[in-house]
Amino acid sequence: MKKPIAILLIAAILTLGIATSALPFSFSTCATTNNQGSPLLATAMPALAQGSNGTPSEGDASSMEIPPNAEENEITTGKEYLNTIQMDGSSSALSHDDTKLPYNSSGNRQKGRDMHTLGKIPSESEQPVEVSKPPLKGSKQPVKVSKPPIKESKQQLVHNINTGEDFTTIQAAIDDPDTLDGHTITVDPGTYTENVAVYKSLTIHSTTGNPLDTIVQTNSDDHVVNVSADYVNIKGFTVSVIDDWMKAGIYLGSGVDHCTLSDNNMTDTWWGIYLDHSNHNYLSNNNAWYNEYGISLDYSSNNCLSNNNAWYNNEYGIGLSHSSNNCLSNNNISDFNFYSIYLLESSNNSISNNNLWNNEDGIYLSYSSDNYISNNNGWANNGYFIRLSHSSNNHISNNNAWSNFLGGIRLSHSSNNTISNINTSNNDFFGICLSDSDNNGLYNNNVSNNGDYGICLSSSSSNTIYNNYFNNTNNAYDDGTNIWNISKENGPNIIGGDYLGGNYWSDYTGIDEDGDGLGDTLLPYNSSGEIQNGGDLRPLVTACFTPPEITSSAPLSPVNDTICTWRTFNVTVDQTVNVRWYLNDMLLFTNLSVRKADCTLHAEVVGEHNVTANASNANGSDLQTWIWNVTGFTAEPPEITYYAPKSPVNDTRNATRTFNITINQSVNVSWQINGTTVQANEGLTEASYTNTSAVIGTWNVSVIVSNANGTDMQTWIWTVTSPCFIATAAYGTPLHGDIDVLRDFRDEYLMSNPTGRAFVKVYYNASPPIADWIRANEGLGTAVREGFVKPLVYVTRMFVG
User: What ranges in 337-466 are assigned the alpha helix state H?
Assistant: First the structure.
């Protein structure tokens, strides 16, 4: 069919179209950021010079987009950047500094920052000096250590990695208006003498991750780091106070929740870390030394404190006051803290797997109830390992206490507590001591080789004590009225017998006349008169003298594993025993009164290891030893395990589109559009990129993930089309099928000749205000659609089919 030029021009005047290829960014004189805060102006300029097909891109003049076939002199922005980036997207011959970009003249230059500054080699005096933490001394007189010798330098910089801005102080980085919730601030090595108020939800960490080379200190009348916002992460600093009177190194104030404090050193403060009415926080791998108080929680609940170290603190390593539902696990507290762990009027806390040594007292509870104290180790403390005062309904189990000066466990004015499965031995005075304490239960405990008494009850009554193992010079003292046995019940008991009844006493000389393993003569046993009222009516005796035998074990030795895997070892014994588990001759824990026992270990060190199970009771012992070979493994490259959306992706101009991925290991992530990096992230297993101003064209959106193990990549084909301005306003949507007909007519006929292209360019400038007028008047939109657009579509279908 012939296509007269008059019909083409009439259809062109009425056709509604959009500027074709343009960059997926809107340019202005200010840097535009995506929702991750990456500056798009600086990173996207190479794409300005060249479209995806190798020709200049087109767009309307108001947003600095380049129309089709535009000349180079039409580019009116980005000139400063193009001085160092060639029009073909390659770098110039200048040498540039690749870090701390974009440079903004220490914050004085707020717009158009330099992305290619000339590099500078730091002088030798600016290099950080590594120092080690103070050693754990065996002496009872602490030895003061000096702070790391880091000199304050004007070259130290603080960086907001989301905005690319640099600062000379941490506070300046926080206060900057461009710094938003969710941003990450990194701090280069050096000494920062300032108070830091964190009132935004930020991640703040030292650049190196080493707290010894990045120090924050102050001598003002405030906490060094004062956190008043939720979801703050602080990592990798040494924090100290020049004058430490009533000041905290890191302070979380009232209502501050969900913060993470990790890998920090707190020294020479009043409180190393202080949580005040602050909940749901996570404190891990922090070191607190030479403070008045190490880590303190006041009216704070549901916090987790794990793998922290505290030494040389005047009062306590970790202290809780009026705080509940906290978890304290795997912490090491040593060397002259007055209390290792201290609870005051605090309930429902879990204290487990902590090592406490060379302090005054280990765990001290005052007016505290319903706490769980389990699997802790305490030795060489000057007082008691576990001490309760005016505390009730606490559960103390599976703890090891040895070589403490006063004793293993002490209860004073405390009732309704349970003490079970405790090993308390070789203490200078007492294994277990109760004073003015009633209605407690003590069972399944091994109390051996204590210097004064195995168990001492003073002014204490109605306590139930059974199935314990007493082997001391003086096994018991009791001036109250207590219960030393239960009724005969089916076994197994602590020495491998078949019945439960009383306790095993190393100095009981009675006879078991009926062979049930319970003594029948010299009753009640009263520990040579030291039990003043009553005594044990069913003392445990050895029914047979055959040593225990491990009848089966698994797995077979030798055992071969790779690092970072888990392995379970188990034994079965022919009689009731205590099973002590050792790794390379170091005692791990003990299973009391069992015939089957297992131990699960994590392969953490490459090499050959010995795992030993020692099954023992009063009849003897048996051993099972495994050779455990742990080897390294070859790291697999990272893999993108999930991505969304599916490719290809179709959007219309100015749409917002998010691309996201999940990776099977921690990686660095680089997002690119047509080969130009638009966003970079570090150390992630999930990542996303959001473009909020889609521009017409076909784009390759790629994400590259990489780490030391290798790389992986995902690419989307992203097609952005235009809503026809007037037709879109008339129909109220850019997705109507009639608009596709008009768009096809534009692309196939108008854009194929100079006259049509000139018309399209003029139309793009004139039609938006008309479309706005139609959208503002519902009746006009209906009239245009029914009386104008639909007839036009009917006509254009003759051309586009």
Answer: none
